[in-house]
Amino acid sequence: ARVLCCACHSRPGRTCPAAALPGPGSLRGDWAALRPAARAPRPSMSGCPAAAALAACRQAWEQVSAKAKRAVVFVDAACAESLHWAGGGAGRLLEAGALNVKEFSSFEAGAAEQPKAVFVVSSLLKGRAVDIVRDIVSLSRFQYCVVFTAVSHAVHLLAHGAPGGAEPEGSSQAVFEQFEEKLCQWMGNMNYTAEVRHAPLLLAPISPHLFVTPAFASLFPMTPQDLARINSSRPEKKKFGSLNDLDFSSLPPELQLQIRTLVSGLNSLFECLNVREECFAIGTLSKIIAGDLANYSQAKNRRKTAQNRASVIFIDRTLDLTGAVGHHGDSLAEKIFSVLPRLPGHANDVMVNMVELTALQTKDETCSIIAPGCLAQPNDPAAKALWESLMNLRQKEAVMEVRRHLVEAASRENLPIKMSMGP
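Above: the chain's sequence. Below: its structure in token form.
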């Protein structure tokens, strides 16, 4: 079997990439480390589940790139972070022919000479997301709009009151079609073109064996305080005595949609891996998620034809709260996440001051003339290899590896080198 691991479940003698992370203060969002287990047959896709998952991330963004030519692209924060790690950020869309890449915000709009727009959102096409799309379209002169949502049509059906999000075989995508009509209305002409599509854009590949889901950075296991709120919201019904008594149907509607969106995203991943999963869960919320995945109708259809098998372990990471008190791991990546400030708009990358590498010398810490550096370098093989070393090697070994790279770079540029490791 293949193991999709949500905690430190590496093979003996190997360091789990997740061990480099100091809990909720480091990488935000549900995450999974993919590593083959012993005696496992190689899957047909790329020979490795991690490689197949990475290919799935890039393939999802290829759908967006195919529509980006001569368009203004508006991307929300979670999808931007996925693109940041998966394929080179905004540069990838610009190389595909995009005229500009902008924040998904009501304060943005297209220019008069820009008739095409592409929207990339991680959320349901409902509520605030709809308001932002309407604001942008109303302030622009678009004639062609394409909307990509990371949430499947089945989840949209659930959000609009369909029982269990049931989607009959061969049915039309009614919710998406209705939104296409709204787009044409906002553009001011029903003969203009509008498209709404689902693309599985939830995963951000931090490393070849570690993926996070930025859209779920706020999803956290339930506590006794949550149980009290759930009981107070159902005064006419029987009270729950403990968190273990909760099931999917007893959760607040917003949390149900969030869980179903995660389950739908996992199902899309498993479709790409062509696997039939067996689920294990530790913790109340994990059990609910695992149960919803087991009962998900699209997942049942996939399992009938899947060629590979996988074990999936869901774990409530509530114990990671202790990580906020002190971090004692022997990882340089952990130190980096603990010390450096977050990259603006991101939950899983840090901001590196690049001014020291330029001729611009200033004591003004708020100086923003030079764009900050970051850890994600998905298009640079050498940088990717060094990042893996920072995550997987012990701290002393990782420092030596960084030093080696610095010495080699200085030698290539004929710079003076001081051979000292310091105190």
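Residues 1-44 have pLDDT under 50 and may be disordered.
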